[in-house]
Batch of 4 targets.
Target 1
Amino acid sequence: MKQIIELSVNGESSEFAVEPQETLLEALRDRMGLTGTKEGCGTGECGSCTVLIGGKPILSCLTLAVECHKRDIVTIEGIGDGNDLSPVQQAFVDCGAIQCGFCTSGMVLSSEVLLKENPNPQEKDIYKALEGNLCRCTGYNKIIEAVHKASEQMVTEQE
Amino acid sequence: MENKLDYVGQRIPRKDGPVKVTGRAKYTVDVQLPGMLVGRILRSPHPHAKILNIDVSRAERLKGVKAIITSDDTIGVKHAFVDTPRYPADEPPIAKDRVLFVGEAVAAVAATDADVAEEALSLIKVDYEPLPAVFDVEEAMQPGAPEVHTSHPKVKEPLSNIAGKTESGWGDIKTGFAQADYVREDRFESHLRTHGYLEPQATVASYEPGGKLNVLTSSQGPFFKRAKLAQTLGLPFSRVRVHKAYVGGGFGGKIDLFYHEFCAALLSMKTGRPVKIEASREEIFTAYRHGEPLIIEIKTGVKNDGTLVAQQFRVINKSGAYRGTGVVVIFLAWGFIIGAYRVPNFKYEGYAVYTNNPPRTAQRGHGCPQMRFAVESQLDMIAEKLGIDPLEIRLKNARQAGEILPNGDNVYNCGLTECIEKAAEHTEFKKKYGQARSASPSMGSIRHGIGIGVSAYITGSLIYPNSSSTVIKMNDDGTVTLLTGALDIGQGAETILCQIVAEELKLPMEDIEVIAADTETTPVDIGSWISGNAFVTGNAVRVAGTEVREKLLSIAAEELEASLEDLVLKDKCVYVAGSPSHKLTYQQLVSLSIQKRDGDPIIGEGHWRTVRGEPYHPSLATTKGRWSDSYAFGAQVAEVEVDIETGQARLIRAVTAHDCGFPINPTLVEGQMDGQVSMALGHAFMEEVLMKEGRTLNPSWLDYRMPTIHNTAKSEVIDVITERYEIGRPYRTKEVGEGYVSGILAAIANAVYDAVGVRLYTTPFTPEKILQGLGKLK
């Protein structure tokens, strides 16, 4: 039986009739067309489906849509401001932290949360924050570099 | 003309960065079309069985099922990666009469949604009669082993299940070994790894009533897919259009024609509606194609000073249930030996052998990591025996610029010696090597080791589609559009091609629009799987750019009444040198060209292929014929930590000194190197697809451990420049995306030995093997 839920995604609230077994990932991709959130495995192992709920990164492939009733959800489409990239996004572009791009949405969202909570992270903090996001292309080196660069950028902007 | 480079060689951010970092890049899995059906594939649960009967009647009656296909719905044409008179195609696009591996497609369904499609699969009743199966490759070769396919008729030895054989040699192997002061024989074995592309395999096929098949598919090149789809569906090439979608990684695993592609297309033809088939990660692990493990027996003879005098190889490829790229990798394995060192007397035999495991396929480096692991490990053993250091023995035998390989290829600008020297110098190799083995026990349980490995790799070869062609057209506003068949799979193909256009035309990157990888609107391209993008497609783009530039200059010369030599391109204008106000904009020149050149809006075209003048690919069976026009060389040093109590080892630092000709984009080159180092450390320490009787035991990323951020190794890259980019001239730059999974794997093995004195003959280098080597585990 379908259930009516209200989702606030990237600051916009809408109601949806969803199946009880429908995942948040399916709701985002199939109902709202927010395909920036990716499914790499569907079993919570790769982190490609990372979105933010209440400002925390979660795996949308393991989260039921009905659990998200009236929660604030941010997807990659909600990062940055129109045509302007966020400092994290810009650093990913500038540092070459993107190759195939399939893990990028999840990587960026996990990094956004890290830098919000800890504007000046050490290497070990970055490891901890991104440990749930698999990347096959980059070996992570340039992703780590990008997070450092974004951190420097954000600290400079605040000063 | 002045050769100041503004774009080539610069760290220009990738062109598709913004679209990827905002989630706007559309991959095949993201595509939704009106009326689209969901397809699913019914796969064999048996490693070897007769199909007695398939009953689809119950499934057909399920509401929402729109079509079901079996082999009866196909035209019966087989396909394969290799399809030659010697090696005719051997794979039915859907199994007929017999299944040969767990996961082989038996039927496929298109339905209104995924749940209905999956329910329909469970309602299809297939009666099987299990047949004897064989999984171990050396058992499969024995006379009397269960027959997967009849042994190749041209292989006369009394062996079973031989899919193909490569034989090559030169000099006199007997005399060579007789001349040697020291001869040793070793056997190395590699294991099964998956590619680990993050984007699952997926296809959207949409057949139009007029008879046109439109396909979006996650691949490594659209032209190969078009050819195979057209052939198996009985359509003319021109009725199949493969479109571009962003691709979430390939690494060799998305080249072949797959069941989901064929079935999506045929289901769409049957229903007249778009059909999407997406593989689950579990399906990818269990039924799709992983890399090709090799058994390598190597016998090497050297003089006391370390000079190689003879080398003999026997290589066995575990091909799986169909030939696939099995006969390619036994050819390539030969090829990846010949580039690095001079060996005057040489003999090679490679066998591709069928088993009832899933077919295998190309995987980044395609045989090179396995071969370099064997060759470089043995070389270190030889050096130790002779009392020579690992650098010296490599430098003594390393090929030099301008050498001709035994197959007739010229290595041209070979920087191998410089690579070895630079990698060693940068890591203080001589100072560090051998230190751990003389360490006192007081240093705790961690031992540090350092090791080196080298590799040589081709830059494009002649395999269909063989060549690259591009068109550059100027637009009315003075910007340009590049049409290329190249497919960017993450390596940055479109970015470097735009850098070349930008350089040839002195045009900002943002003024170049790319139309790519569309079999209908873009010219043919070699594809992102033979390491030819920078060299083959890049030169094609350069030629097209030259034509456009010359047209711009010719009109400008006329209009400005200046000689060609006095003209300068800058900021989308052509100037007279020394007279900056005396200029015409590209926009004006396009307009003038249309007026004065019979309507030519200024279009340039360029073609390129490697080994020009050679009609064909070299023989897979005999290796005769030239192979490539451009070889990359590299030396890689690994520094590892090994815990002698737990046997745990990890790569902490990798230094890659590579002769890439010149880097078109150093940031992208580093990205390739970092990724290869990571893949190699996964190969060395972490990853293994475990199989038992044809079934995969660990079909998830939880149980198949791919490197996470915690496994990151420090990766340093040293560019050894052996070539110049000159505007308007052909160049010979080299591949950077495949060869460097190889030397580093060997370097890791050698570094583990340096750390703890344990020589590893099989990958992966598990704690168990290291502890066994230390005598701490039986």
Target 2
Amino acid sequence: MKTNFWKQSIHWFCVLIIIAAFSFPFVWMLLSSMKNQLQITSGKLFDLTWSLSNYRDVFMQYNFLHFIVNSLIVAFGSTLGSLVLGLPAAYAIARYKMQGLGLVILAARIVPGISFVIPWFILFTQMKLIGTYTALILSHMLVGLPFVTWIMISFIETIPSELEEAAVVDGCSQAGAFTRIVLPLSGPGIMTSSILSFIFSWNNFMFSLVLAGDRTKTLPLAIFNFMSYSEINWGGLMAAACIITVPVLVIALFVQRYIVSGMAAGALKG
Amino acid sequence: MKWLFTLPAVLFVLVMMVFPIVYTFRLSFFEWSMSSVTPPKWVFLDNYIALFKDVRFVHAIGRTFYFTVAALTIETILGVAIALLFHREFIGKNIIKTLFLLPMVATPVAMGLVWLLMLEPTIGLANQVLALFNIPPQEWLASPAQVIPSLILIDVWEWTPMISLIVVAGLSAMPKEPYEAAVVDGASQWQNIWHVTLPLVRPTIMVAVMLRLIDALKTFDIIYATTQGGPGFASETLNIYGYVLGFQYFRLGAASSMLMMFFALIMGCTIALIWMRKRLEV
């Protein structure tokens, strides 16, 4: 009994150390976001005067509200687009066993994004779409679509097909069976895949770096631009980092059990 | 009917992915800087020949593999060890698992910049901690020799959780009988882990490593956010060099030929992995 207690304590201790180490950058980000430039550069580790003035600056001076709106528009737009294209595709792939087609869509997750960025840049420029929300949404959909499709394939496979067959016998069309029976039953799957697609669009940097214009800059670009000032405003930078990451972290807390299976979607079964 | 359901998604993938890759392939035989006055000039294989004579490209290949192999090795060992630790029942397990997930969902650019502050040579926390142990300050991301190890540190922080959590999921789906049999036969706890758990969970580990490998080769955000490939070219991986050629030098032909090589490399790795996995499972 006694050794068991010690064993458990040591185990707990190891777990705590690991969690402390992996959470530390978040703690440091939060602490630094409430210090001024002098406190950060003087190198005193734990200075006990906090202020929220960095957050005020980020909104007032750097106009972050505008970038938040941009990020929201692109993230919602690309998630919606991915659902519109991905849901019917996932349904057909699940019901008619079109695995090959599923692999083609999954390829979008494997191929490096940078290999299509140059043509996009050229074509969007010629079509006068460069720097528009449309270009950003289309590019982010290429990230969201594979997630939506693969999560939904495995979800729809768990819905018994008898329901749709019965509906078709009663005179319902295939499309009707899909919209009236499969979609209403897919709520949890749609939730999970939308949230993942949203997070990936929110976090996306490379596509926005190439395709966004001054007016459509998303948050990752806005925070990256902090670096172009001659002296880096570290406090402001950390406040901006908090503003970007906290929404994602909060969402992740609620859907944690789906995230890992979602990110590994396709690979775990294929 | 079934084609009608998939048609929009397939068209989208064709237009947004397949067509651009074909376009890039074609462009890789031209020289063009996107000017409207000088049209693309056909140079056939010149871009590819120049590429293999280009030291920056050759170094970028080496760096990409160095970064990927080192990061992946550490992430796998650490990730599996942590998964074994998390597999037991303990108080607050769910909260701990949730907290552990956060590094991989947090916006990489933002977290890269947080690490940039922590590793800053003069004001960063890392050197202050080293000073407590009387270790002289290090240059971290600012030194050509330490920049890749520093980036590996950031990548390990960001992605070890993914390997761990996939392996934890695999562990909890495992049958109990082999353990009971091993305990009856008098196996110690370490023998149990080494000879029973790890072989059983190996396919799951393989999947996790595969996913990570494909993504690690393409690492862009944390590198570009913290160093943009510098100091000098010391952290310029293939992905970064491709971006620089295309969007800083506007040498679109040269960039295209490089991206085709990069594309071939990733596809080659993926196919090799799938083939290896099939062989190992048979």
Target 3
Amino acid sequence: MSRILRPLAKAHDALTGLGAILATVGLMSIVASYVYEVITRYIFNSPTAWASDYVSYALAASIFLALPQVTKERGHVAVTILVDIIPTKAAGIVHFIVSIIGFFSLSLAAWISLQENIRQYTRDIETLAMVPIPVWWVSSFITFGLTLSAIYMLRYAAPSSRSSENFLGAGSN
Amino acid sequence: MEWYVTLLAGIMILFALFLSGTPIFLAFLIAILTGVYFIIGPFGFPMFANSILDTATTTSLASIPLFILMGELLFRSGTMDVLFNSIDKLVGRVRGRQYVLVVVLSAVFGALSGVAMAVAAMLGRAIMPGMVTRGYDRDIAAGLIIAGASLAPIIPPSLLAIIVGSLADVSIAKLLIAGVVPGLLLGGIFLAYVFVRIALKPDLAPANVSSERGEVSSGEMVMALVRILPFAIVIFSVMGFILLGIATPSESAATGVLGAIVTAAIYRNLSFKMIWQSVMAAITVSAMILAIMAMSKMFTQLLAFTGATSQLVDLVANLGYGPLTMLIIMLAVPFLLCMFIDTIAVILLTIPIYQPVVTALEYDPVWFWLLFLINITLGAITPPFGYTLFAFKAVVPDMSISQVYRAIWPFVILFLIGIVVIIAFPAIATWLPELVG
């Protein structure tokens, strides 16, 4: 890998790791919010106005903050029955094609999501909720997750990144 | 273009992508971007972005990472070992007691984890070698472990039930509760089958029962029971809270997580490191599942947009088949699909098509979707490509895949018998949800 690409790859990995840590904190906060909601509603008869909305925002953020980590670890579910039995060379070609298509598809999805983020920001669109917030605060995590995952697909297309193991998926359900 | 051409083309593209090893979330993404472009045009892309956001912010789906986290906490804290040892002591000295142990452990682990593959792998690793050494029939042991593990998606809490409930727009709480009696019924059918086999051919289980389990005093039995009690905290904080109306299924998943933490603390196996690793594992697994769901939401909208949904309902309504024939056809399709492709992919592919048909045919939604759930679970243990079979095979390397296939067939038939019983007596599935209201 060239001198320019290596630091970029490190920065990409670091950002992915940070996303995974934030996603973990996000899931912990979902547990705390729901438990707090049950206690305040059932014991103190005083339900919160924010818990349900917060959980929906935190869920979306956590999923897409963790998505690049799943892609990095090749943890996505894939049906690898046929790929596993074809010759290694042919499997390598299939993996290359799939990862390139994956890169372009995820990039297109990220671009579409970014356009929506910009539209939501410029038009001041808020969530339909008890506690409304600007929609782009939540939807921008989708763009983050798709963009970083797209870059992993591109990195996996490089011959040096191909392994004889399952290339893109975990091959299970 | 005719609606059925579009529908078939979409399904064919998805199948080709699945079989090429493309990750499922990516396969849906590619198919949907292509579909939106050709059916709606580029103006449809914002709809796609919003469909991802809609799914990702669906509160009921929060129960998926929470139930996974609950299972992770229980497994990583080693509290499952306590459960295993205690149940081993409690199962009496009957001939074939390890078979009984497998069914009981499957039901309990299934209730605590909700994932068939995890339970199959765990029991395959923990129990299978000992059973073979002690002289138990290898085929029955393997078949029973795989079939027993498949009770996990049926006995609540079940991830698949939550996914099916949220996609089919049926009460998740009712669908979860509906799995209790059918799950126990299937466990009972498995045990009855094993005892009949032993009665007909006694050498299928070792004759010397006392060599398997030493004398257990009544004091030890009481202690084993006491050591199991903390698990009641987990079960109560999930199912108890739902049944008593204290919490929604998603909230009860969070209280279940708290219950798992308390249980781990009671067994003195609680640490911050263990919690952090559990949460990290849970969120990555959940991101993988929820990304698939988020990507595939637009599939439903595309079906509606092309008119495929309404045309399909018209077609089915005019087929002239009775409700029972239609039911068999509708159950056969996902069953066959699950033999070849991933369970979640089958769910996401078939539910948008089935949902209006189920309404048109006036089936009880809880009953139908529970049958659907059991059916796709069965598909995952049916040769040649049932995924639970592969999870089991991975931890039992001395069994060939053809031996695993041979072992599972009797249990596939038992599952089918169970499904027929639930079709004949719908109250098995609907009684408990109706009781709860």
Target 4
Amino acid sequence: MGPTDTTKAGAHHAPAHEHGSHEELSFWRKYVFSTDHKTIGIQYAVTGMLFLLFGFCLMMLMRWQLAFPGRALPLIGRLFGEERMPGGTMLPTFYNELGAMHGTIMVFMGVVPLAVGGFGNFVLPLQIGAPDMSFPRLNMASYWFFFLGGVTMLASFFVPGGAAQSGWTSYTPLADIAGTGQTIWILGMIFLITSSLLGAINFITTTIQLRAKGLTFFRMPFFVWAQFVTAFLLLLAFPPLEAAALLQLMDRVAGTSFFLPTGLVVSGQALQVSGGGNPLLWQHLFWFLAHPEVYVLILPAMGIVAEVIANNTRKPLFGYRSMVYSLIFLGFMSFIVWAHHMFMTGMGTTMAAFFQTTTMIISIPSVVILTSLIISLWGGSIRINTPMLFALAFLPMFGIGGLTGLPLGLNITDIPLHDTYYVIAHFHYVVAPGTIFALFAGIYYWFPKATGRRMSERLGRWHFWPSLLFMNGVFMPMFLTGMAGMSRRLADGGATYAFAKPVLHYNQWSSFSAWALALAQIPFIINFFWSIKHGEPAEANAWQATTLDWAAAPSPPGHGNFKELPVVTRGPYEYSVPGAARDFIPQNARAEG
Amino acid sequence: MEIPYTVEIRPDTGLNSGKIGIWLFLASEVMLFGALFATYILLRVGAVEWPHGAHYLNIPLATLNTVVLISSSVTMVMAWASLKRDDFGKFRMYMAATVGFGAVFLIVKYFEYSAKFHHGYFPKTNTFLAIYFTMTGLHMLHVMGGMAVNAYLWGPGAKLWRSDKEHFTNRVENSGLFWHFVDLVWIFLFPVLYLL
Amino acid sequence: MSDTHAFDLKKHVRAYILVFVSLMVLTLVTVAVSRFHLPVHQAITVALLIATIKGSLVACYFMHLISEKKLILWVMALTVIFFAVLLWIPMATVADRIGH
């Protein structure tokens, strides 16, 4: 193919058909340094799930302190050493360390790698009928940057003074003067951000360039649209945080005063720095990313729920077009709402009004998407299986999370609620029984595609029902404690405040629920590993789905995914089409006539 | 297994994947430097007094560097244009010139920075110098990165010309896009830091 | 590679040379203007105006944005909007703060 060969006919390639055409890869090239999107997706997913478990364990430790402030933790308390838990009792600095790292790990090393790196990588090329991502080697690099970032974050626990302990938000000037762990946090973030940026470039290019013949944008499954918009959020919102991280690094290591105001006094002594900096600058740059980041957390989840619901109602999604337009509008708006996290920073009424207005507007597309998903159930032939249970539970849980965000987004009602447990309850509802439930739905749903076997339905129920119950047990009381005025990030859970006395017992409700929630994950862990080898064998289109991942690729797909690249002839949700032989028509079914 | 549209153009978008990829990367870089410009604005607006660039910085040297970088952009685009005309010899000449200009830029920067340090001007001295060193430092890292890629394409990477001319030409074009972007950032950095 | 018509080197090179000369002139102009020590607001406006013109020349002609496909133009337009938001809004919140 020379420089002048640009004919349109030369543009369409068939992928590698025969496996004999390329040499057998070594163990390292096949499983560790793989460029295959499916392997990389599984790497991201498993690593992400391990970090989710670790972040969960950090929180369970915190919940001991919150339930029984100042009491020694029996048996394992002393394992954390004299600097963290002398005599088994938690020091406030350790509580802060746990809090900051719980947030950081859950968001950046758990949910996003699983939702985007895991599901996005594995499913997206399959659903668009592509042999792999546009840039397979860049994809591999993305995973390893993520891994490096994760290792860096874990390593930070072992430096003198411990890991970062200034909140996942690393507000300045506190984070500027914090211990070494904060510097390691910054380095870890730079690796993680790089991973996301490279991944975003890959996802966007792949979606644009590698859609199968006939797969127009409005024939793409909603899951693909969700990942596509998410990639734009990552691409354009992360760099300012990377810049901010660099600035904080300069403050900490080079003695600059980007975020240090003039005349700052620490422990009775004036800081020997030039001053002239602005702590709010950090907040602006941080939240410029962190607000779109929360949509990065929810959009892939909505994508998964949409697929599972359409499939298990045997009906097209209601309002697919509106949902897609809502996704795009939401993505755009997410860049201009960030300072609703900063209402209490002395902002004037004009800017507060601006941000409260954009925040109210952004709730509209969210509501459109949620309502469409709910209406999609109407008149459906609903199949109840484990993925569907998690997808159904997502709907009211996300509803609660979303609705409780409204008083936070209005600057007047935010005044009593800001930085209280109400905020914690709000965002956990969207991420925990919201996104994480959707991710569970996705794992149960796509497990047969990745392994050729189903997960056990019985163990799935044992996972689902207690999880639903205890998730609510953990977070529902927090609305009450928050409205009573209990601040977040208090190492004793508010025990020293007289006004908190009537609601202090809720801390114990939440803690017992959290520990029970941990137990409820055991059926899942057993199910996941046992089913890989012993699950009921699944056919290629295990769920009788219309989308290409199920209808056109084997389970599991081989290298290159498809024997021949599929040709798409219809939309993504042709379920129960009147007059059709079966209750679904795959996207690549032959066109009529 | 070959990934479609890596080199050849996808009909409905009119683009190959590499070009889309590099533009997306540049979009992220716009936001990266944008955050630093936003930092400059906030720090300056909040400052009691803000020094004029000339007080600390060497304008003639920076003007020279501006000329150097703009020239390197011209040689870069000429390098690509030479490949389009199948003139590999000219490509090597122009690409070498591009890397050469980049080296001159770095050398001038070395003299600039060491003069600052010699006078006792460090990032920690005040916020003006902090943002000056950070912005020009990050820009300098980008110059180095671009030079490394260009040097690779001039040297060992040029092997690809023999087996796939179009693919190699695209790589040079994409590297050029990055290099022009680095020039573009400097076009804004120079007046903002040095002349205002 | 990109254009179905033959690559017209002469036209392109003419554009590159014109742009190069313009960039050099504008560089000298911007340095010259700075020596007049205009009041701050005017100085900023003039400097940014000249920089924008120079930047646009680089983007349009060296980076070929002027003949680029719509997809790329849309992505960059979106980016420029968010860039403007990032530059404008934090300053607006500082300017609008309580007690100011």
